[in-house]
Design a protein that fits this description.
Layout lengths: L16 H12 L3 H8 L3 H8 L7 H11 L3 H17 L2 H19 L2 H6 L8 H12 L13 E4 L8 H16 L8 H14 L9 H7 L3 E4 L8 E8 L2 E6 L6 H16 L8 E3 L10 H14 L13 H11 L3 H10 L25
Parallel strand pairs: 1-5, 2-4
Antiparallel strand pairs: 1-3, 3-4
Helix pairs in contact: 2-3, 4-5, 6-8, 10-12, 10-13, 12-13, 12-15, 14-15
Length: 366
Amino acid sequence: MSTTHTNDPLPIDQTPVGELLGEELEARGWSQADFAAVLDRPTQFVSEIVTGKKEITRESAAQIGAALSQSPEFWLKLQDQYLLAEQAKNRTTQAKLDDVRRRARLNELAPIQLLQKRKILTGSTLDELEAEVMELFELASVDDQPALVAAARRANPEEDITMLQQAWVACVRRQARKLPPATDYSREMLVKLAAALPRSVQTAEDFTTLPDQLRDAGVRLVYVEALPSAKIDGCAMFVDGYPVIGLSGRGKRLDKVLFTLLHEIAHVLQGHVDDGPIVEELDDSHAPESIREREANNGAGTWIFPNGYPPVPARINAPWVEQTADTLGLARIVLIGQLQKRGRLDWRTTLAKNAPSVSDVLPRWD
């Protein structure tokens, strides 16, 4: 065989690169010692490459290429072609690569390590993890795409649903199935509850009884801790015929989490979760509102201000906030949050200092 032309095509057969080099030397009438002298290397160096005891490195490929008027890439590709072909025939290696592909697919579906850390996934083997992920997303095959229908309150409405957001909603659905409501869904009871919540929730501890209150209306309220960078506050969906509302606690502040709850209740009452997924932004986002989102925001706002938005002075101070919140029967931070949402107060206002957080209360729900 003669391979004296630069960038010669690779041979079809899978021959060890050392044999190919030996054939090349024989075609040129060179002994291994002759070639070693050309390379300024020991004869043993050439012998070990020809017999397959030593692999060709980038340095030696450059030297062989220079001696034979070929590119270094030519010899490296010959070697890689043979080694990859041998690897493809190795069942043990291929089984390990199949496992890599399976783990990669699982990580396309969900943040596996994070869900393991939170003990949402507990399988110790790959087979067990795969079965758990399929159960979480309700898939017949791990290669299927998850189908989740929910109204999701997100901070990135201009983007597609992310893997983290999809996984969070799936966790909400699974958590909801663990303890379905004992009574049928009552729209009338949910309407009454939604109207009462802005005045009944005054402190973080008032969140403690919310799951029971919604359960009495046939609605399952679920807390699933926010996944890092998921940018999702809440969702609403129907599971097995009953409404489910999920909260992530993102934002932590009493008023923000309460508004998310009211917002998702509005989706349920207005029938927004019956016919497809909806994407929404946070209350302080500047993205354009969809019609359904605007309806849900307006519904939540009406429950907070049933008699209309109160007149607001040009200069808002603490005494006015205290007096107005007391008159309206609202927690002070709820009024402040609405003023911020409507652009009447900056999000960095000192009036919101030491705002109550519900981050310690929500984990008690389940």
